[in-house]
Amino acid sequence: MAEEPPKKKQNVRYPGESEEAYPDVFTVMPPQPKEKKPGQLPEESIKQYFDKGYVIVEDFFSKDDLDACRESVREQVDRLAQKLFNAGKIKNLYMDQGFFQRLIKIEEDFPGANILLHKSGEFPPAFQKLWSNPRLLNVIEQLIGPDIMGHPVWNLRTKTPNNEATIVPWHQDSGYLDTRSYGVLQVGAWIPLLDATEENGCMQIAAGGHKKGQVAQHKCCYGGTWYVMLEEEEMAKTLGVNLEKDLTVCPVPYGGMLLFNNMLPHKSLPNKSKDIRWSLDLRWQTPDKNVGFYDLKPGLLMQSSKDPDFKIDWDSFNKIDRHKEQTKSLSGTQGS
Ligand SMILES: O=C(O)CCC(=O)C(=O)O
Ligand SMILES: [Fe+2]
Questions:
Q1: What predicted TM-score, i.e. pTM, was given to this entire model?
Q2: Which of 90, 118, 129, 264 makes an SS bond possible with 210, Cβ 3.0 to 4.6 Å?
């Protein structure tokens, strides 16, 4: 028997049930920093970001920045393998398998292992370092201004080949978020840990779909997953998207990233390759409304225009585990 949907609270609007629109927030470029800072993008890229809602940046990260993240993922996979092996869930530790294969083998013995990793909530120092990378924050400053709050929703994507649970359908990131944050400008950085291609399941976006500054009605849930989804007709009707011309495939080489705002519809392609398509997605927002993730976890201030010596308070941030809080609250909402 199907479970009854949770009773709707009075006077609460759920994601997508809002006609609020903030076109200027997402289409008007903030004043650009007066001095050029390391890593900053040329003006044409910033213009494209506000016009189309996204920009692909190649050759941005150093090998060390991303190799440290790969190493951290390797360690997480190893810990997961040990745990499942000790619990008798997998036949072998698969130590001889490399970075792009080991989780596939684990998954064969224990379907869903990749989701356990995706939802583990572990935010290791290498990911934190990438999130607060000064060159990256210089770019974020170009996109949202000098006051920068890290958004608590980040993800490690464990996209094993031919796995429905890792194919993310059309959505706007704000479709996952609290309606109180709708007018807040947010940037997402999608960072692959290999060359992301059409074959291994890179992202697709609907260029210009951010222009109305509005969150369209999302449906829950896609196939057997927890992902919310935006139907193509709804995207056309509410956001004025014409996929015939707006659909854009976004391959990103290792070392690069795709930047997009929280109103831009996007999805990921199936992984038809033989390797795991690892990626990280990280987010930032203007600090005007620190709604964080449904009041379960607030954002983390990373840069302040008032204080050039501002120090990030990692301890307070790391004290709260978003996934644990989410489970506790039993609200049924999930970060993408
Ligand atoms: O990596 C994916 O497949 C989806 C990523 C995504 O939806 C995001 O970065 O917001
Ligand atoms: Fe997303």
A1: 0.92
A2: 264
